[in-house]
Amino acid sequence: MRASFFAACGSVALTALGAIASCSSDRGIRETNQDDADAEATGSADDAQAFDAGVPDEPRTDSGARDSGARDSGSFDGGPLPVVCASAPCATSLVTTRGRSDDDNAEGFCALLDDGKVACWGANGAGQLGRGAGANSVTAAHVVGLSDIVQLDHTCALDSDGGIWCWGTGPFLRNDAGAVTTERTPLKLALPPAKSVGLGVGVACASVDDGVTCWGENSSRIVSAESAAVLAPQVISVPPGASIRDVVVGNAAFVLREDRETVSWGAKTLIARVSSLAVDPYPRPIALAGVSSIDVTSDSACATAAGIGYCWGRAMRPATFTDLPFERGLPVPVVTPEPIVQIATTRSIEAWVSNKTIIQPQRWCAVAASGNVYCWGYNASGQAGDGTTDHALEAVQVDLPERAVEVRTMPDATCALLTSGEVYCWGSNDYGQLGSGTIGEPSSIPQRVVLP
Questions:
Q1: The CATH number of the domain where 335 resides is what?
Q2: 57 lies in a domain?
Q3: How many structural domains does the chain have?
Q4: Are strands 404-409 and 423-427 parallel, antiparallel or unpaired?
Q5: Residue-wise burial string across 415-449, b where 16 or more C-beta atoms lie within 10 A, e elsewhere
């Protein structure tokens, strides 16, 4: 099944949405429902009809995109379907790992299990697996020393007492202020009890009782307005508002509140609001209301609000994938076949080949309120999951054995968490990131990960 996925690529002025999306964050929080194995997404058929599930009549010839138009968001209030653990092992959330730097293309994934442990698979060059030095892993295995974990973001975890544990490569407060180190087993950070943690490349933030604290590399002014140096933990002056639900970090930082207001600061085009062309170190509300989830990389971001996906930052024109990338400073709506509850994006990759820069196009996946998964964009390794390696210029539905709760994307591979707590992956397998027990052979159809 295919449907057009991009809206017009020009700047879009967004006003507050009449509907409010689900208040539950999709980002690595352990939450299961043991009672309702047949739970459906919230919202009526009338709600879903507020979204155009068909393909618009004519494509836009300037960009190959189709304009989503001004849609009535109706009263959609759906959230992700719950995980129902029928048997162990059972995953309750899913994240991607991070390499040594933004140029490190090694891929892997981690899952939070319902017993409070964490399992990872894929690349281990930067200690991403959290079980010591060693080769990449084609099978999922436990991160050593972790228990009673309630939230996971990349290679940082939050325990039930608010302790933050991190492994891999990042600003883990080992020695010099917020300097980046490599920790091959989990290290507990010397921070006050936290409510959530977000890990970027070389920078991290946590929500604590008195607000938000950030530390690490500061070129995007996430940690401080005063200096580009690597910094020890700093308290961020976030405007007053509702309780903080989550903090998400890339080259910009986002604070999601319980009333679905979102504030941002950091790298210019990623902050999703009118600002100067320079970095903006001062948290302010973004130009999108009712946000239920955000996914951010070093150069792009996407969010869901009232069942609609929005993206901004660096983008490729989807008609050909041959034009140079351009920047979108404000959220642009994405056309999907049905209302969505979560969207995942990837950073763009640049390589120097034959004396010229080659840019690998981006890709995206989304989970619908129904539990269907759709992917589009770059597909050379089958990472769109439709059984082909043709670039998905339109959204394609992934053939999964069950409905999905969330989906996670890396440039060359994808994994999805299903309502049963099983994880399926597809795409490239150069690092064992499919968790299928083999390495090297890609798969354009989903493969089940054997969890420990």
A1: 2.130.10.30
A2: no
A3: 1
A4: unpaired
A5: bbbbbbbbbbbbbbbbbbbbbbeebeebbbebbeb
Q: Which amino acid is at 365?
A: C
- For residue 376, is it within any domain? yes
**SS3 at position 268:** helix
Q: Does residue 58 sit within a domain?
A: no
- The candidate with the shortest Cα–Cα distance to 261, out of 223, 298, 224, 294, is 294
SS3 of 270, please? helix
Parent domain of 408:
2-52+63-448
Specify whether the CB–CB gap between 401 and 449 falls below 8 A.
no
Per-residue pLDDT of the chain (452 residues; tens, 9 = 90+): 444 433 333 332 222 223 323 333 345 655 544 444 343 333 333 333 333 333 333 323 222 233 333 333 344 667 899 999 989 999 999 999 988 776 677 899 999 999 999 999 999 999 999 999 889 999 999 999 999 999 999 999 999 999 999 999 999 998 777 788 999 999 999 999 999 999 998 999 999 987 999 999 999 999 999 887 888 999 999 999 999 999 999 999 999 999 999 999 998 888 999 876 788 999 999 999 999 999 998 888 999 999 999 999 876 554 445 555 567 778 999 989 999 999 999 977 666 556 665 566 688 999 999 999 999 998 999 999 999 999 998 899 999 999 999 999 999 999 999 999 999 999 999 999 999 999 999 999 999 999 99
The first and second tokens of residue 167, run together, are 């492994």
Amino acid (one-letter) located at 275: S
The secondary structure element, H or E, covering residue 45 is helix 45-48
Residue 426, H or E segment: strand 423-427
d(CA 416, CA 401): 11
Residue 195 domain-assigned? Answer: yes
Phi-psi region of 431 (alpha: psi -120 to 50; beta: other; left: phi over 0): alpha
CA dihedral for 297, 254, 93, 364, sign (positive or negative): negative
Taking the CB of residue 49, how many other CB atoms lie within 10 A of it? 11
Q: Which residues pair with 165 in a beta bridge?
A: 157, 188
Residue 228: half-sphere exposure toward Cβ, Cα within 13 Å: 4
Task: Report which of 210, 264, 253 is spatially closest to residue 235, judged by C-alpha positions.
Answer: 210
